[in-house]
Write a structure and sequence with these properties.
Blueprint (H helix, E strand, L loop, with lengths): L3 H19 L3 E4 L8 E4 L4 E3 L7 E7 L4 H17 L4 E7 L4 H9 L9 E3 L4 H5 L7 E5 L5 E6 L5 H14 L1
Parallel strand pairs: 4-5, 5-6
Antiparallel strand pairs: 1-8, 2-3, 2-6, 4-7, 7-8
Length: 171
Amino acid sequence: MMSARSSIKGIAKGLALVAVFASATFAASSSGPAPGFQLSGRDGKSINLAQFKGQVVMINFWATWCGPCRQEMPLLEDIHKKYKPMGFTMLAVNVEPDSKAAEAWLGKLSKPVTFPVAFDTDSKVSKLYKVAGMPSTVFVDRKGNVRVMHKGYKPGDENFYLTQIRSMLKE
């Protein structure tokens, strides 16, 4: 039989773990080569991660049903426009089975996106990157290595994005 004290300790540990996993956003450092992929993009153009080697790449996994994804999309466009001339690429990967719905949603934006958008309709790429929630953002350095994975989005996270981008552009 468990004592009340050990039971309370167990509950406290469990709550601490829940708090960690329930956090709206978190970033994890990583290393190693970014898994390569090729996906269909807008207008049927093929998008291959390898075509961006030598650039800092921010891969943003998103879905139209994701409120935070909708909220951050105009901010991603601003980041893309500002840092593209410096060797930065924003790459959005939509994870829905129906790319037409994503295209329709993108077409309704007041500020159209000018960065590449790829469609992961069978979730193969999201599985390669171990994407567990929307949005998820992966930062890849100029050498093609995953540096950081950021999960979720809340207002202010764009400052974290900018810190990562600026740091990697200086390398």
